[in-house]
Design brief:
Largest sheet: 7 strands, parallel
Order of helices and strands: HEHEEEHEHHEEHEEHEEHEHHHHH
Distance between the termini: 24 Å
CATH superfamily of the largest domain: NAD(P)-binding Rossmann-like Domain
Radius of gyration: 22 Å
Strand content: 15-25%
Oligomer: single chain
Number of strands: 12
Structural class: alpha/beta
């Protein structure tokens, strides 16, 4: 049997990820990070969702003082003292923030511009740095390759951006990018040169309730025949929530302002490298079947939703997973190995209640996957 260049590529990815997986599964607890040179007073808006808890724990480990502001609906246990302030930005209830000062404010959950405006009215002149967590979805165009932070942004074209609410956003997710772009503009209006804007790509890892990456470790660990998208050559970008959270704390320690695309890894990762790498963290021996993009479209198998992480690497989405992250790398963004993220995500998922595990929020059901694979094999045979 002849070995093609693609076979070598896949075998290399497999072997490398297997070695990393062995290190992950046999590794001791991570070494605590060193203390920061100067302790900061950090206000985190939100802080109990997906990324926030990682920020809190890392900030505490670095010796910072942390205050959370949210509605108080989620309880978390922290390894050290965390101040909790309660309010509701939907209702403009920000009294708990008034008359206070912090070195930095990190705004995690905001997608609505009036949330930024209201916080700006209270915190302008009261925080030295304001960090807004945006998204790479703010860009107007996803066709250009290696586009950086200067690329044009999506424009909001509605009547009054300050009247948009979470309800209207949930009803029309096409507003997500334009509203985030409007939030960025509002942040700069209130906080000026003290503004830091972080634009993450797909955020993944343990704790992600969307299952937009989780699907793959779970599905590949189940073994059997697995539908994989395209021919494996399309690029993918994503970032572990822990890498994002920890880097953001280091950003504020350095007082780094400006705009940063925050996704990864720090090299071009292909879809086949991702899936074979994830597979190598399991012992199930799943069999990947690469199904063409055209066939998937004909069977109404949607990129991103049914085939998570993946978008076609051509046409309108050619540049979506090819965003330049040069600025973030220069500011010290680092990445865990894929095997670590995959193994930790699977471990977290397997500890969830059985009813939750039975209902993945993304990816194909096993029944639909079998139907797609049967039709694909029939076409290949014909």
């Amino acid at each position: 049997m002849s070995i093609t260049r693609r076979d070598l590529f896949r075998l290399g990815a497999l072997a490398g990820a297997a070695a990393l997986s062995a290190n992950v599964l046999g590794a001791a607890a991570p070494t605590p990070p060193p203390a920061a040179a100067r302790p900061l007073r950090i206000l985190i808006l939100g802080g109990t969702g997906f990324v926030g808890p990682h920020q809190v724990r890392y900030a505490l480990a670095r010796g910072h003082k942390v205050t959370l502001f949210n509605r108080g609906r989620r309880t978390r246990e922290w390894p050290a003292e965390v101040e909790q302030l309660t309010g509701d930005r939907n209702e403009g209830a920000l009294d708990a923030l008034k008359g206070r000062e912090w070195d930095v404010c990190i705004d995690n959950p905001t997608s609505i511009p009036f949330w930024v405006r209201d916080v700006g009215k209270v915190l302008k002149g009261k925080v030295g740095q304001y960090v807004f967590v945006s998204t790479i979805s703010v860009y107007a165009d996803s066709t250009a390759l290696d586009a950086d932070e200067t690329a044009p942004l999506a424009a909001y074209t509605g009547k009054d951006v300050m009247k948009e609410t979470q309800t209207s956003l949930r009803a029309d997710m096409s507003l997500y990018g334009p509203l985030k772009a409007a939030c960025e503009a509002e942040a700069r209006k209130w906080f000026g040169d003290g503004t830091t804007i972080v634009r993450p790509g797909l955020i993944v890892g343990p704790g992600d309730e969307s299952d937009r990456f989780t699907y793959w470790p779970v599905r590949l660990a189940a073994g059997g025949d697995v539908v994989a998208p395209g021919d494996g050559s399309d690029p993918v970008q994503f970032i572990d929530a822990r890498d994002l959270a920890e880097w953001m704390i280091r950003l504020v320690e350095a007082k780094a302002t400006g705009i940063y695309n925050a996704t990864g890894p720090d090299y071009t990762m292909r879809t086949d490298a991702m899936l074979y790498g994830i597979r190598a963290t399991t012992t199930a021996g799943a069999r990947l079947h690469w199904v063409s993009t055209d066939f998937l479209a004909a069977r109404e198998v949607a990129p991103w939703r049914d085939m998570p992480v993946w978008l076609p690497g051509s046409g309108e989405t050619a540049g979506f997973a090819r965003r330049s992250i040069k600025r973030a790398l220069e500011r010290g963004l680092t990445f865990r190995p894929l095997a670590t993220t995959a193994a930790d995500t699977l471990s977290w998922f397997q500890q969830l209640p059985a009813e939750r595990q039975a209902k993945l929020g993304a990816g194909l059901t096993r029944e639909r996957e079998a139907d797609v694979l049967k039709a694909w094999q029939a076409r290949q045979a014909g």
